[in-house]
Amino acid sequence: MIPFISQYRLRDILLTRFHPRNVVPPDTSVLGMALFASEAGPARHGTSRVKKVVLVGAVPPLMLKTKGNPNGLPLEVFDGIRNSVVTDRSQFWLDLSMSFYGYNRPGAKISEGVRQAFWRQGVLAGFPASYFCVKAFSETDQTDDLKKFDVPTLIIHGDDDQIVPIQAAALASSQLVKGATLKIYKAASHGLATTPKGELNNDLLAFVRS
User: Fold this and answer.
1) Cβ neighbours around 75 below 10 Å, total
2) Which domain holds residue 165?
3) Residue 27: CB partners within 8 Å, gap ≥ 6?
4) In CATH, what number is assigned to the domain containing residue 92?
5) pLDDT at site 126
6) Is 56 helix (H, G, I), strand (E, B) or coil?
7) What does the pLDDT look like over 79-123, one tens digit per residue?
8) Above pLDDT 90, what percent of the chain?
9) In what order do the strands lie in the sheet with 153-158?
10) What is the pTM of this model?
11) How far is residue 191 from each of residues 42, 58, 101, 164, measured CA to CA in Å?
12) How many domains does the chain have?
């Protein structure tokens, strides 16, 4: 069996061989979405070659509810995800597509094609990644990383995101990143790159060109 390597460990392995100055062109704008938003952050490797950062539906600073993070989600939520992955991973991804894209809301126009594409991407992740990533994205506290941002940062989030609730995510991170611009999409889900994709593309282009 091939051992599972978290995104954070994999990042460190790769960057021991491929330094940012060799793989990131100067004046690059970096986009991070959901749980991968931490890789877009300049905190770990500096901003000498990063011009701007965009966080879309991003997990940071911390999803788990703690004494210091009362707006987070309780551990039972993430235990439930792990249990669903173990019990029937395939069905879990199909069911998750409903809340991921807001298809469970009254009057939502459901795309079965989008749901099937989401399911396919999910099952391709494999069991170890699907299970162990839950701890990584829910319990990793990136508060200090966000405080180190020193480039223009755009934070985009849907106010009806059922996967990464906005209260403990964008509303909190926008207060931690100096000079951050927060843009909230009304009644938007977590699947911003699929549902309001035209609005998202326009906002990304406008920010990069500004």
Assistant:
1) 13
2) 18-209
3) 49, 51
4) 3.40.50.1820
5) 85
6) strand
7) 999 999 999 999 999 999 999 999 999 999 999 999 999 999 999
8) 67
9) 28-33, 50-56, 153-158, 181-185
10) 0.83
11) 24, 11, 5, 11
12) 1
